[in-house]
């Protein structure tokens, strides 16, 4: 992205510099064309003026010739005067012919000079036009490149905007999930606190039940001991009852003087106390 920005800035700077140079060149070319056009107009005016002067001279010559033709010819009376007049006319004709040739030569030189100058100015104008055309083509190519860079930059901007939108959506989703997570954490913390309270109550209940079990175990032990004692007592009573039943079945009562031994263990009884 930064590379595209750099390329765009460089292209814009180059384009601005080229446009400025093209503007300066165009201005100089316009000034040069204006100067050449002014010179061409001046040369055309000069050529027209020379042509007019030539026409005027020719017109005056023709008018003068016609005037001479219309005038009566006054020939001199003597041959010498006639020869002198012919020589004078020949000299005038030669002078006029030389002036005409000089004027025509000057006109041809000026016309050639004007043609060369016009051709040079035309070549200069064509060169300036070719230069301006080349510069305009370069500007068009640079403009096409700049348009391509701008299009690429626009695509990058659109992609960046889409990524930013996706990032914002992800951030919003993340914020929502974080909020839900915070709520879940708070709920779990409350549940944990409740479980901790319940655990403490259950531990207290367990301790109480342990104490109760110990108490019941002690009572059970005492009860078992009592039961064992009771069983022993019952057994002893049963033995005594059995003895009594046996003694009842044998002899219900005997005088102590008649008893010599124990009826149960058959032990000999000697004294009254033992009996």
TrEMBL record:
InterPro entries: Rabaptin (IPR003914), Rabaptin_Rab5-bd_dom (IPR015390). Keywords: Coiled coil. GO terms for biological process: endocytosis. Residues 1-31 are annotated as: Disordered. SUPFAM superfamilies: G protein-binding domain. Transmembrane segments: none annotated. GO terms for molecular function: GTPase activator activity. It comes from the Eukaryota. Residues 2-248 form the Rabaptin GTPase-Rab5 binding domain. Residues 136-226 form a coiled coil. This is Putative rab5 gtpase effector rabaptin-5.
